């Protein structure tokens, strides 16, 4: 049995409903409107392909400027926070958390969102007493596919063996991060951005319909 399960957030345990992409589009249109009008299709495609990575890194790659990336990331956060109340947990997630905790398994979240956004989301969902640790690129200075966030929560919880950690995510970058970390189990979920072929191609050990379908693997 695993000692720690680390979940991605949007698309894995929380319904996205296109809000993340809408926030990207709002940020591009606000910060670089002329460039956005020329490259909206290219930028939107890249945002979808890199879903799960640190938002500021995605912006910096596309805009070629840290200064512009910081402005775009700020616009992204401002827009996303205005719609944060729309974020809803997928059915069965809270029950899954409680089942894991009853079996002595710790729960952590990692995300491409910044600290303010994640903390507000956890508060809105009423999960403060269910989550043992969290990580964002705000602390680690590196987003996925770097393993930095997985290393961060493992250190916080005193877990030194990556094989005792399972990770779940809906994107290739989630899986790649788990591989680099050396996680004992990498589970892809089909409730978010990427399809089964993409997740398996990234190295997922198993792919399930949604996170709740992974409970048997996690308690094995």
TrEMBL record:
Coiled-coil annotated spans: none
UniProt entry keywords in alphabetical sequence: Hydrolase
Pfam family membership, one: Hydrolase
Name this protein carries in UniProt: HAD hydrolase-like protein
GO MF entries: phosphoglycolate phosphatase activity
GO biological process: DNA repair
GO cellular component: cytosol
TM annotation in the entry: none
Matches recorded under InterPro entries: HAD-like_hydrolase_sf (IPR050155), HAD-like_sf (IPR036412), HAD_sf (IPR023214), PGP-like_dom2 (IPR023198)
Species this chain originates from: Aquiluna borgnonia
């Amino acid at each position: 049995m695993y000692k720690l399960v680390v979940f991605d957030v949007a698309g894995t345990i929380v319904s996205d409903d296109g809000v993340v992409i809408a926030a990207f589009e709002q940020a591009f249109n606000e910060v670089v409107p002329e460039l956005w009008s020329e490259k909206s299709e290219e930028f939107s495609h890249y945002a979808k392909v890199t879903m799960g990575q640190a938002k500021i890194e995605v912006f910096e790659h596309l805009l070629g400027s840290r200064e512009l990336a910081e402005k775009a990331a700020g616009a992204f956060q401002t827009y996303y926070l205005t719609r944060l109340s729309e974020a809803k947990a997928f059915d069965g997630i809270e029950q899954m958390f409680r089942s894991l905790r009853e079996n002595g398994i710790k729960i952590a979240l990692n995300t491409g969102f910044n600290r303010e956004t994640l903390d507000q989301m956890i508060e809105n969902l009423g999960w403060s007493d269910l989550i043992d640790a969290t990580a964002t690129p705000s602390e680690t200075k590196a987003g996925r596919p770097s393993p930095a966030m997985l290393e961060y929560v493992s250190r916080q919880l005193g877990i030194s063996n990556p094989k005792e950690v399972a990770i779940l995510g809906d994107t290739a970058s989630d899986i790649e991060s788990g591989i680099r970390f050396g996680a004992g189990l990498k589970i892809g979920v089909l409730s978010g951005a990427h399809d089964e072929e993409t997740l398996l191609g990234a190295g997922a050990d198993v792919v399930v319909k949604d996170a709740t379908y992974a409970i048997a693997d996690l308690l094995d």
